[in-house]
C-alpha cells in the first residue's frame, strides 16, 4: 500500500471541495472506508507543505470498536457522536524527532537524481543544523504547524473522495500519544479528524458563521 497514486476523485469540483466544506458531526455508521483508500487519502494529504520539508506528521487511524473505546476514555463527551458514528477517527500527531530522518530523505533524493549534490549539501548544512540545535518548543511548534497543514489537506482530500470531516481537539491531550503506544515526549497531539459520510437524517445544527472579512485583514 506504500505507493498508491491513483488520483481518482469522486468530487473534482474545486469550488465545492474548498468552499462547501463544513464540519459534520453525525455520520452514517454503516459506512466503512477501505484501508487502501484511507492510505491513499493519507498519501495525498502528505503533499501538504512543511517547514524545510521536514514532514513532521504522523497519522493514527482508529476504525475498530476497540480503538474507539480507547478514544472514549480521553475525549470530551460532546465529541461522542463523532466517535460513535464516524467511519474512522484519524489522529494527527506532530513528530518532534522528524529531523532525525532528514539526512536519509535527502540522501535518497540525491541518489535518485532528484536533486543536485549542491542542493544536498545546502540542505544538510543549512536546514538540518537548525533542527539539531532547536529547542523543544520550536520542534513542537514546527511539528504542530506541519501536521495542521496536513490535517487541512486531508479534510479537503476527503471531500474529493466523497467523505465529510470534523476536526476535533476536544480531548485530554496528556493521554493522547501514550494511548496509542507513542512516546509522549516525541509525539505532540495536534488534532483528530472524524471522517465518514453524513447521516442522511441528521443535518448539523451548527452553521459555519464567519466574521465579516473586513474584521480579519489589513494591508501595509
Ligand atoms: C483545531 C480545531 C479543533 C476543533 N475541535 C472541535 C471539537 O472538539 N469538537 C467539535 O465538534 N468541533 C471542533 N472543531 C470544529 C469547529 O467547531 C469548526 O471548524 C468551526 O465551528 C467552523 O465550522 P466549520 O468547520 O463547519 O466551517 C474544531 C476545529 C478545529 C480547527
UniProtKB/TrEMBL annotation:
Keywords: Oxidoreductase. Residues 18-197 form the Nitroreductase domain. One of its GO terms (molecular function) is oxidoreductase activity. SUPFAM superfamilies: FMN-dependent nitroreductase-like. Belongs to the nitroreductase family. PANTHER family: NAD(P)H NITROREDUCTASE YDGI-RELATED, NADH DEHYDROGENASE_NAD(P)H NITROREDUCTASE XCC3605-RELATED. This is Nitroreductase family protein. It comes from Lentilactobacillus parafarraginis F0439.
Amino acid at each position: 500500500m506504500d505507493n498508491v497514486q491513483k488520483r481518482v476523485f469522486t468530487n473534482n469540483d474545486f469550488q465545492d471541495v474548498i468552499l462547501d466544506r463544513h464540519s459534520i458531526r453525525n455520520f452514517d455508521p454503516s459506512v466503512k472506508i477501505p484501508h487502501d483508500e484511507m492510505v491513499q487519502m493519507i498519501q495525498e494529504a502528505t503533499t501538504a507543505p512543511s517547514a524545510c520539508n521536514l514532514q513532521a506528521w504522523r497519522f493514527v487511524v482508529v476504525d475498530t470498536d476497540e480503538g474507539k473505546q480507547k478514544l472514549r476514555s480521553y475525549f470530551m463527551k460532546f465529541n461522542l457522536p463523532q466517535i460513535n458514528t464516524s467511519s474512522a477517527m484519524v489522529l494527527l500527531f506532530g513528530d518532534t524527532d522528524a529531523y532525525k530522518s532528514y539526512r536519509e530523505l535527502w540522501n535518497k533524493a540525491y541518489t535518485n537524481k532528484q536533486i543536485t549534490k549542491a542542493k544536498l549539501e545546502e540542505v544538510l548544512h543549512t536546514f538540518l543544523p537548525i533542527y539539531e540545535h532547536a529547542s523543544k518548543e520550536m520542534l513542537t511548534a514546527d511539528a504542530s504547524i506541519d501536521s495542521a497543514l496536513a490535517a487541512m489537506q486531508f479534510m479537503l482530500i476527503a471531500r474529493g473522495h466523497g467523505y465529510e470531516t470534523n476536526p476535533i481537539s476536544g480531548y485530554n491531550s496528556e493521554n493522547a500519544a501514550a494511548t496509542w503506544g507513542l512516546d509522549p515526549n516525541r509525539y505532540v497531539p495536534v488534532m483528530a479528524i472524524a471522517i465518514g459520510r453524513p447521516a442522511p437524517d441528521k443535518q448539523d445544527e451548527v452553521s459555519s458563521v464567519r466574521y465579516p472579512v473586513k474584521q480579519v485583514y489589513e494591508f501595509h
